[in-house]
Amino acid sequence: MKKETPDSTNSPDNSEEFYEKHKKVYPRKVTGIFARLRTLGVFVLLGGYYFVPWLRWDNHQAVLFDLPARKFYIFGLTFWPQDFFYLAALLIIAALSLFFFTALAGRLWCGYACPQTVWTEVFLWIERKVEGSRNQQIKLDNSEMDSRKFSTKALKHFLWLTLSAWTGFTFVGYFTPIIDLGHALFQLALGPWETFWIIFYSFATYGNAGWMREQVCIYMCPYARFQSAMFDKDTLIISYDEQRGESRGARKKSVDPKEAGLGDCVDCTLCVQVCPTGIDIRNGLQYECIGCAACIDVCDEVMEKMDYDKGLVRYTTQNRIDGKTTHLFRPRILVYATLLVIISLTLVYSIATRIPLELDIIRDRNALYRETVDGLVENIYTLKLINMDTKDHQYQLRVDGLKEMVFIQPKAEIKIKSGEVINLAVRIQIDPVNLSKTSSIVNFYLNSTDQPDLAVTEQARFIGPLSK
After folding, report:
1. What is the span of the domain harbouring residue 147?
2. pLDDT at 17
3. pLDDT, position 48
4. pLDDT at 6
5. Neighbouring residues of 139: CB distance < 8 A, sequence distance ≥ 6
């Protein structure tokens, strides 16, 4: 007979599983001011997401990221890869905004604006419409599979998949003109990459918002892990007032809680039932809390019914809980706000004064200079001209900076179509007696003849022989 060791898997002392099986969370529907704010956020954000690709502006889609043409249309503005600075500035503003609002009021992004939260709200709404209330959903899931349960589940998943497919189609519509994409879809003529991204984004939406839900927030989102680094004792958090609420206990409305030795918490567990991540806010601040404030709304309803003061669960700060003064304007908030204002104003000013014309100058590096048969010193330059405007323009080019220099170019006027990039080889010649030093600065001026304010200036170096 084989002797079993103390660490045998058959031993009852080792029967505990390493990983707890996932339990589905059934959030109860809640009403209140914060629920209305979340609903407003859903309408604004998803409404914008689904509606904006259909807007037209100057005979093209208002918002379109045309990767093959390397053009990015955003409400009348056309950006090019050369405008990468603006994308970098937007990312910096987004990061600073996250830091600012998190330090000020906790996980506002997670509770009201995160795509995972927004789409999950819609999927939950569909689920409630099809399967009923929280108790009805639990009863349905615990029942045996029959024709009614199958048809109910099938309808729910059909609606989820339909919304997910429309989400994926809209996402690709930001990169391929959505009208053309629709025609290609109905004609079964979608390209391979368009097909891939529609399917990928559709199933990502269906999986994240329909199946994984709170697991994305708890296990996958990195923000939940490092949010505490941005919190301090003056950050607004959702907290249960333990001093006021304990001891918990059920009671009739007519019972005086003080005489019964009870706190204001009636232990109804509604704050747990409405939580989309399934936590109990009465256990203190937890990283799973996404700051949606559903527990505040439902607790205030209970307090109102019991004729108790609202705010047993509320937005507060650790300092206020400890009986100390809360400081709204503190160094980190002022630093974040100042940087946000400066960078945002700089970005707006830069875009407002942006000239949709690019001039790059590359001096011929094969030779520092060459001497012509007439004894002149010559430098050759390659100019790269980009018309980043939405219209065609005629341009003229001129140069100054050196005395009596000769500027030679292929043609006097240059026509560049919208979005066109042309390379132009030009030469500058000068008598060496007019060169006071080996390296001199010359200025290139490029301006539109039909739109005078469309002009740029760039400098280059003219290299000559050593002065005698």
Report:
1. 20-354
2. 52
3. 95
4. 42
5. none
Cα–Cα distance between 377 and 322 in angstroms, integer?
80
Domain for residue 12, yes or no?
A: no
Identify whether residues 256 and 327 lie together within a single domain: yes
Is there a single domain that holds both residue 336 and residue 446?
A: no
* CA distances in angstroms from 314 to 295, 428, 456, listed in the order given: 8, 74, 57
Residue 317 tokens, joined = 């700060």
Note whether 367 and 421 are same-domain residues. Answer: yes
Q: Count of CB atoms within 10 A of residue 72's CB?
A: 18
**Both structure tokens of 214:** 């709170």
Going through 288-419 in order, the beta strands assigned E by DSSP cover 313-316, 357-363, 370-371, 377-387, 393-400, 406-408, 413-416
Full-model pTM:
0.83
Q: Within this chain, do residues 274 and 361 fall inside the same structural domain, yes or no? A: no
pLDDT score at 276: 94
Exposure string of 363-378, with b = 16+ CB inside 10 Å and e = fewer, is bbeeeebeeeeeebbb
User: What CATH number is attached to the domain comprising 364?
Assistant: 2.60.40.10
Residue ending a domain, among 324, 354, 384, is: 354
Is residue 379 included in any domain, yes or no?
yes
Would residue 250 count as lying in a domain?
yes
**Coil, strand or helix at 377:** strand
pLDDT value of position 11: 42
Neighbours of 180 (CB within 10 A): 11
In a shared domain, residues 234 and 367: no
In this structure, is residue 241 part of a structural domain? yes
| Run means of pLDDT, 10 residues per run, the chain, 468 residues | 43 49 89 95 96 90 90 87 88 93 90 94 96 95 94 97 97 95 94 95 96 91 80 91 93 91 95 95 90 95 95 93 87 94 95 89 86 91 89 91 89 85 92 88 92 90 80
What one-character-per-residue DSSP string does 341-358 give? HHHHHHHHHHHHT--SEE
Contact 270, 298 (CB under 8 A): yes
Q: What is the token pair recorded at 203?
A: 């199933």
Q: Total structural domains in the chain?
A: 2
Among candidate residues 313, 337, 354, the one where a domain is terminated = 354
- Do 136 and 214 have their domain in common? yes
Unique residue bearing structure tokens 């604006």: 113
Task: Specify the DSSP element, H or E, that contains 424.
Answer: strand 421-430
Structure tokens at 79: 């950006």
Asked if 126 and 237 sit in the same domain, the reply is yes
d(CA 116, CA 113): 8
| Pair 289, 166 in one domain | yes
pLDDT attached to residue 468: 55
- Cα 229 to chain centroid distance, Å, stands at 21
Answer positive or negative: Cα dihedral of 137, 141, 142, 148.
positive
